[in-house]
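quick q for whoever's on today - can somebody do inverse folding on this one?? i tried earlier but teh output was garbage lol. tokens:
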């Protein structure tokens, strides 16, 4: 065999091997672990993705809900799964950006034990109030809180939750005294504000819009760098002089560290295709107030670094700590 023939043979073998490797995943059913109960926004999106992934991958894709322990149970399950790309974690900022600073000890390392795949959506939360509160803007709320320190309550979804951190950062940067009232979930916190049990809370557009339209809540500000197209008249905290108040939540995909790069790339590419589908994007995401992201693995990893640092500041301001 001539040298040229040998080179051609090697090229053909390499091309065949690379093609076989790229097409080798998935080789069996894929599981998406969601560390939250069924029925919530993240669970619904996970099931929508699973249906579309299954059609593309030619393998079964199932969603497994593993709630409990502030998402730690489900996240730990994935951290200890085989790093072969067949177990995917779909979780939120609470798991990866907040819990590492909130809990003194976790059974996994959020940075070392996972490979980021993509941030799917970003959800900016609103600061909403009971309509009877005698303030109709953030400036008026701050003035009222300074005039009557310790008399205005705000509800969160629990100590160390996103609304708790947002509330404490607002207190710190505005120099006001608000009283934190923790509830067990958004399903209790928002109704508490509507009923007047508390004056304030933070919630997403999807869980607030109907109540804003009916007049059972009013909104003072929204997080993020820009206004929501669904609420174009509502200013951002940054516009109002409080860029340090971070209110966002996010949904993202991860796999165990060490999973094959071809699996990471395939999951990212196919997730991005779903997010970029115009009908799905508008009806299932934008209409709910989600900012559609679809970041690359590298972009998501960089975002996680800055997000984690910001949440560390929020946890410190809140004083929350779990043994």
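ok took a stab at it. sequence:
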């Amino acid at each position: 065999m001539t040298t040229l023939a040998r080179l051609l043979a090697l090229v053909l073998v390499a091309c065949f091997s690379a093609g076989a490797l790229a097409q080798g995943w998935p080789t069996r059913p894929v599981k998406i672990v969601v560390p939250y109960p069924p029925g919530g926004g993240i669970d619904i999106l996970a099931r929508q993705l699973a249906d579309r992934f299954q059609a593309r991958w030619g393998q079964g894709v199932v969603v497994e809900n593993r709630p409990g322990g502030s998402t730690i149970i489900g996240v730990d399950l994935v951290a200890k799964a085989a790093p072969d790309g067949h177990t995917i974690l779909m979780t939120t900022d609470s798991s990866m950006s907040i819990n590492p600073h909130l809990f003194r000890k976790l059974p996994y390392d959020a940075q070392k034990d996972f490979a980021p795949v993509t941030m799917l959506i970003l959800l900016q939360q609103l600061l909403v109030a009971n309509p009877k509160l005698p303030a109709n803007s953030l400036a008026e709320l701050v003035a009222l809180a300074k005039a009557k320190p310790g008399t205005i309550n705000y509800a969160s979804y629990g100590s160390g939750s996103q609304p708790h951190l947002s509330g404490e950062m607002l207190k710190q940067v505005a120099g006001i005294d608000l009283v934190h009232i923790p509830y067990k979930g958004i399903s209790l916190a928002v109704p508490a504000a509507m009923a007047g049990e508390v004056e304030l809370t933070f919630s997403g557009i999807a869980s607030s819009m109907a109540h804003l339209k009916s007049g059972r809540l009013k909104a003072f500000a929204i997080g993020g760098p820009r206004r929501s197209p669904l609420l174009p008249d509502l200013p951002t905290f940054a516009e109002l002089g409080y860029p340090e108040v971070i209110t966002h939540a996010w949904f993202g995909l991860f796999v165990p560290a060490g999973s094959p790069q071809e699996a990471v790339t395939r999951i990212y590419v196919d997730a991005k295709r779903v997010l970029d589908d115009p009908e799905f994007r508008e009806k299932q995401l934008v209409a709910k107030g989600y900012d559609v992201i679809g970041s690359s693995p590298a972009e998501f990893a960089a975002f996680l670094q800055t997000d984690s640092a910001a949440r560390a500041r929020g946890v410190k301001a809140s004083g929350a700590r779990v043994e």
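fwiw Residues 221 and 234 are 6 Å apart (CA to CA). also The two ends are 69 Å apart (CA to CA). so keep that in mind when u check it
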